[in-house]
TrEMBL record:
Coiled coil: none annotated. This is NADH dehydrogenase. It holds the Pfam family Complex1_51K. PANTHER family: NADH-QUINONE OXIDOREDUCTASE SUBUNIT F. The keyword Iron-sulfur applies. Keywords: 4Fe-4S, Iron, Iron-sulfur, Metal-binding. The keyword DNA-binding does not apply. Its cofactor is FMN. Residues 482-527 form the NADH-ubiquinone oxidoreductase 51kDa subunit iron-sulphur binding domain. Belongs to the complex I 51 kDa subunit family. InterPro entries: NADH-UbQ_OxRdtase_51kDa_CS (IPR001949), Nuo51_FMN-bd (IPR011538), Nuo51_FMN-bd_sf (IPR037225), NuoE_N (IPR041921), Nuop51_4Fe4S-bd (IPR019575), Nuop51_4Fe4S-bd_sf (IPR037207), Thioredoxin-like_sf (IPR036249). SMART domains: NADH_4Fe-4S. It comes from the Bacteria.
Amino acid sequence: MSDLSEANLGALSAIVDKYRRQPTYLVQVLREVQDALDHIPPAAMAYVASALGVPIGQVEAVTAFYAFFHDRPMGRYRVLISDNITDRMLGSMALVEHMLNRLKLKLGEVSADGVVSVGLTSCTGMCDQGPAMLVNNRTITRLTPRRIDEICELIRAQVPLDDWPSFYFKVDDNIRRADMLLAAQWSPGEALRAATSLGPQGMIHELRLSNLRGRGGAGFTTAVKWEAARNAPGHGPNATRYVVCNADEGEPGTFKDRVLLQSYAGHVFEGMTIAGYAIGASRGFLYLRGEYTYLLQALEKHLADLRKMNLLGRSVCGVEGFDFDIEIHVGAGAYVCGEETALIESLEGKPGRPRIRPPFPVTHGYLGQPTVVNNVETLCKVLEIATHGGARYAGLGTKQSTGTKILSVSGDVDRPGLYEYPFGVRIAQVLEDCGARHPQAVQVSGAAGMCLSEREFGRRIAFEDVPTAGSFMVFGAQRDLFEVARNFTHFFAHESCGFCTPCRVGTTLVSNLMDKIAAGHGTQYEMNELNRLAGVIKGSAHCGLGTASCNAIVDTVQKFRPAYEKRLKAVDFEPAFDLDAALAKAREVTGRDDADAHLAQGMEQH
Ligand SMILES: Cc1cc2nc3c(=O)[nH]c(=O)nc-3n(C[C@H](O)[C@H](O)[C@H](O)COP(=O)(O)O)c2cc1C
Ligand code: SF4
């Protein structure tokens, strides 16, 4: 602690006090510590551990787990450029090179004067207005070489971020097709009042009639989830229940929740409050992904306004005994935290590792209490059901997929952005509406989803055909589907939380194999290995991240095999590096260059 200056000690003390020295706020505290000190030095970790009464090992583990936390200086300006495939298609890698050249830096390196570092990060949720970057967690969209030049100048002159041109940070909604949700006009409290007049059981009954299914990907029936949490008794002397809004939105190509949080926050919060009323909860959390920190201030203001309107707080809407409030937790760059149990771990101030289930969050969630976790879009849909009734809602969409679905469309299209359709819309219709340019494939539901070829464009968006969390990435005829799959394998290897061996080791082996094929050293052996590993990981990974990690490989190998085959060598096995070349240095040192000093191709495998 002696390593901390008086000023820094003062700043840290204010931060821990703001969070009432509660250990569950560890991730929030570390986020603010990093904002104040530019990184989280060991002395700050020790201070936080002592102030929050948690083991130092927990603080170190949390710091190490989240990509946006650093225990050593990473530069006063920490630049992270989005590495999603759509950003790459928009030329992000050339911009990275350009920036590194301008700053005379290597990727991941900190400048000698400690001012700046440049790295890559997974999808920033700006695929409709990329290439994008984060600077100290603030989003900058629409990067061009010129904008990179300007940013380099601002960094060199050490201009505070608040003084950078405000239009750099502008994030557009890009709503291209609005339907039941995006086009509706709601006045604050209207749906909540309808819900309270139905009563908790009545609200859940309407939800059941609506057959609303979760929009976070898995499509679980919302009424079943709410009812289970309502019926779960709670545990211990402080038995209670919680509502969590999953706004982690880390799936590559998905950005619908960003728009809902930016322009429909009232819907999101009201949906959470209705959930709180229906299940008997008094507290809600919105878990906001770290990449969306730019929304935090506006969201906090929104909550304050709702409290003023008595739409949050004590006796909400004048209903005696209905006390409910919402707080926001901000993530720190871990895709796996979107998995609901990992998210709950993160909310509790721990590394975001998925829990073993059962028990499920509806009975044992946040702090072991019954907890409903719902996606942002799901919670918005609740308003329509509360106001107009479940039966009317169920009249739209398909039998198993009622209502509408928002798609985040990006890639080779003229009009990227949000498209809301009734469930059952054909892929071909979406492609036509967004101005797809000679599409050869569509990746639906992100890296974890399905890759559809042209022959499947007649299929429908619906849980009974092509399910989706919302990502819709279009690849034109000129795109290399092998490179698309390779990008996804790197994503999963990077995002694996390391909890279980099949995923931790398997995703790395898969991404190494893809790199080997990309480097021209692939053979049928590597193709067989890809297939074998995909089966092993899918069959034995602990959570959805692992089980979905090879979906894109399996799909692209099956449907776009020439993209792989053109890279394969005829030999059965090719080492990832040239052993004979690697021995050149030894030959030079020993002065030998005879036949015995060389390794013949093909020997190495034995
Ligand atoms: C690796 C992984 C990441 C996930 N990311 C998200 C996410 O960002 N947002 C989300 O709502 N659900 C995500 N989910 C699904 C959640 O675990 C959970 O099913 C969902 O939040 C439930 O809400 P819903 O019933 O409203 O769909 C993810 C699941 C996995 C396995
Ligand atoms: S499957 Fe991967 S992400 Fe999920 S728990 Fe295992 S290691 Fe972690």
